[in-house]
Design goal:
7-stranded mixed β-sheet; 4-stranded antiparallel β-sheet; globular
């Protein structure tokens, strides 16, 4: 049973940066594609970014492209989300997820394991 634990969320002013981490345990995290999703109050869960098992391929939502960077360190069983130029509309609970799939990584239903999430709040 894979377990994922996020950290690094917090309160930041618009234009600032945060780095989220998601540490995995209980399995070989390196075989999984990993993704970040977010959910703001009253809104549906939204895809943010994903990375292939090798780290060779990355995918981003249009709303974060050029501002966010996803990366992974398989030796540490950890995936990161570097968030720069943050905007108030980025405020949400951010969750990481692991998938055995290699395609359709923008779809929440393709993921097998989820973390509890970490709150990111961007003030204007």
């Amino acid at each position: 049973q894979v377990q994922l634990v996020e950290s690094g969320g917090g309160l930041v002013q618009a234009g600032g940066s945060l780095r989220l981490s998601c540490a995995g345990s209980g399995g070989f995290i390196s075989i999984y594609s990993l993704g970040w999703f977010r959910q703001a109050p009253g809104k549906e869960r939204e895809f943010v970014a994903a990375i292939s098992w090798s780290g060779g391929d990355t995918y981003y939502a249009d709303s974060v492209k050029g501002r966010f960077t996803i990366s992974r360190d398989n030796a540490k069983n950890t995936v990161y989300l570097q968030m720069n130029s943050l905007k108030p509309e980025d405020t949400a609970v951010y969750s990481c997820a692991a998938s055995l799939q290699r395609r359709n990584l923008g779809l929440p239903n393709e993921y097998d394991y989820w973390g509890q999430g970490t709150q990111v709040t961007v003030s204007s």
